[in-house]
Amino acid sequence: MASTEDTALFRDVFQANPDPIMIHDADTGTVVRANEAAGALLGRPPADVVGMHVGEFSPPGFSTADANALITEAATSGSAQVEWSTQGPDGESRLVEVSLERAVIDDTTRVVAFIHDVTEIRRQERKHTERSKQLQTLIENLPVVVFTLNPDGVFTYSAGKGLDELGIEPGEFEGASVFEVYSQYPDIITAVERALDGEEIRVTQEIDGLVFETWYRPVFDDGELTQVVSVARDITDLKQREARIETLSEATNELLYTRTERAVADTVTQIAQRIIDQPLAAMWSYDSDDDTLYPIGATSEAADFAAVETASDLPPMGPESDENRLFHDGSPTVVEDYQTLSNPSVPQTPLRTVLFLPLEDYGMLCIGSPTVESFDSHDRFLLEILASTGAAALDRVERETRLKSKQTELERSNEALQQFAYIASHDLQEPLRMVSSYVDLLDSEYGDDLDEEAAEYMAFAVDGARRMQEMVNALLRYSRVETNSGDFEETDPEAVLDRTGDALQMRIEEVDATITAESLPPVEADPNQVGQVFQNLLENAIEYAVEADIEPRVEVSAEEDDDMVTFTVSDNGPGIPAADHEEVFDIFHRAGAHDTEGTGIGLAVCQRIVLRHDGRIWVEPSDDGATFKFTLPAVTEVSGDD
Fold it and tell me: For the PAS domain, which residue ranges apply (predicted)?
């Protein structure tokens, strides 16, 4: 028997409980007591709830009989549960969970209803269920394979559209060991073992001809591995595209070695077949004279398809043809059905879809199909790259052809010039010797009989013959720059300059000239001709300084830049007028007025020697004296090794 104090305590707890509580008569189901929370739930004072039957506030479809049955069940078995919705005083529907418990109060059997508002709980559960369904639907339709493994390597889950590619049903391997299922794939086994050891990894794996990029992520709980979550993405197409691009890049290098238009066409069509897997490939060259495209290359499959023996037997694309119009449009164009063209060049050929790729102004590449189909965007991209590369190759071939033609013409002209110079100079030797001999005879036989004026004329004749002889010899030296040249070799310019100084030593000491040189990098050159360049520049610097009554000072320096060495020879002489900076290298040209003798051939020889070495020579503007610069090939590692 509870004490009065306990009764008061229970009453206080009953009233203070935040959840609604009702006490029902076990026989009738009527409410005999309700707390404040119960009154609030029904929107009336607790006193008004007392006497109500549970059926009066049950949800629609839940009758009084149903309510009595529940109370009877609880009174008999000790408990019962039900979940229903009820409408609160605010008109909002609430979902409640009712737990009915049998209790003996004051020696009377009662049924206590504990009511718990589960509206928010059920809402969260529904939301979670919906999200789970959405996530499951998402996973099932993602183009990947998602699977989990337990710490023993047993599949616990698998889903994703990627399973279709492998012919596997979702969940098919659940319960099976990955070490058994994929025992024939060592790379997969190795990756799984690393993941089960706690390592997060990304690997590329091949399964049955398919390539997957797979991510393994270990999951831990309190430091213990609970599972491995893995996602595998099918990258077979991506890898194939990467391989095509790489192979295309390597294949187009072949175009670097093509030397004719037909060779370019053969290479381009073969690349289209090999890389893009389009066997019906052919190429036409444009002739602007008659506005016609002429065939220059095709795959054997294309020739067979067109029922011709060779590519050159393909029909041309004349000014009135649709192909010619597409060429002049200048943009890549896909004709979905060739048979629908109004004026095709080969109407009898059963072509359907054709991709026309103009090669700038050089021609057109055509890729065809015997069926109506759409070109894959990636394949079309690669074909456009191929067409662009082919156009560049044709441009290079055209430029090389023109260059070779001009080079041949230049070589013929240069050879003729050398022959002319050599023959002319030799033919001049004999009359010059004759003039000199007879003038000498005249001077020796009749010199004493000549008056002063006649003697002066005789001296003029002797001097003219001598200067003519010097010019002939100079012309011979100029013409022999190529014919009497030596092989290029690693040359030490400092040693060459020292030898040149030794050869000029008497003249240097005579005029008290000073020649200084900095460190000079080695060059790949003809050492004798390098010596000629130094000698001509030093002689000019000394002679013109002496003529101007200046004590000669010459400085030689050099700088290496990439694959060339730039030499600088500067002096303190009278300099060269700016107007003569270009003409000073012309044969027999002498800048300014000079009293010193000379033929004007020295700088022309220097220029020809430097040009033979693929260098250049020029006069640098200077406020004091003359500054010459010239370039020669530097010694590279390859040439050094050779």
Answer: 6-60, 131-182
Instruction: Compute the distance between CA of residue 198 and CA of residue 196 in angstroms, rounded to an integer.
Output: 5
Cα 348–chain centre separation:
42
The pLDDT tens digits for 367-415 are 999 999 888 888 888 888 889 989 999 999 999 888 888 888 877 877 7
User: Checking phi first, is residue 330 left (phi over 0); if not, alpha (psi -120 to 50) or beta?
Assistant: left
In Å, the largest CA–CA distance within the chain is 181
The Cα 607–Cα 237 span in angstroms is 60
Between helix 377-446 and helix 452-483 the angle, nearest 10°, is 150
How distant, in Å, are the alpha carbons of 43, 144, 202 from that of 235?
63, 10, 13
Asked whether the beta carbons of 66 and 82 are under 8 A apart, the reply is no
- Cα–Cα distance for residue pair 261/284, rounded to 1 Å: 10
| Contact indicator for 554, 542 with CB cutoff of 8 Å | yes
Burial zone of 565 (CB within 10 Å; 0-12 exposed, 13-18 middle, 19+ buried): buried
Cβ atoms of 255 and 390 closer than 8 Å: yes
The type of residue at 32 is V
The region that residue 78 occupies, defined by phi over 0 for left and psi between -120 and 50 for alpha, beta otherwise, is left
Extract the runs of DSSP E, i.e. beta strands, from 60-200: 79-87, 93-105, 108-117, 144-149, 155-159
Name the DSSP class of 447.
Answer: G
Which pLDDT tens digit goes with each residue over 316-350?
A: 999 999 999 999 999 999 999 999 999 999 888 89
Q: Is the pTM of the predicted complex or chain greater than 0.70? A: no
Number of continuous H segments (helices) and E segments (strands) in the chain: 19, 22
Q: Quick check: 555 and 570 in contact, CB under 8 A? A: yes
Contact 328, 235 (CB under 8 A): no
Quote the crossing angle between the two packed helices 602-612 and 527-547, to the nearest 10°.
150
Q: What is the DSSP letter of 580?
A: G
Q: In whole angstroms, how far apart are CA 371 and each of 30, 78, 302, 352, 375?
A: 84, 80, 14, 5, 11
Rounded to the nearest 10 degrees, the angle between the axes of helix 236-252 and helix 261-275 is 170
Q: Cβ contacts of residue 98 below 8 Å, gap of 6+?
A: 81, 82, 83, 84, 113, 114, 115, 116
Q: How far is CA 419 from CA 203, 408, 478, 640, in A?
A: 72, 16, 12, 36
User: Residue 109 pairs with which residues in a beta bridge?
Assistant: 104
